[in-house]
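Table 4 source record.
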Amino acid sequence: MVNLFGLIGYVGIVFLLLGYFMLVIGQMKVNDTHYILLNVLGALFVVITLYTGGVLPILQTIVAWLVISLFGFYKNHIAVSH
């Protein structure tokens, strides 16, 4: 049985892979809001799961992924509107 944090992690992985797949098949572009949100939410969900499980190297990688995704969101959507 998967616990709540495990389920959150699986959803996060699905979001990350779905975003990447949609990018590869041309259904999304790197600066699309939906692509960036899939990356932000996916990375955040995986971070939550990894934080509760103590897997430090993977946690650090996903935190970096989250920071890069948030930067992309800021660059493409927040900074552009100002």
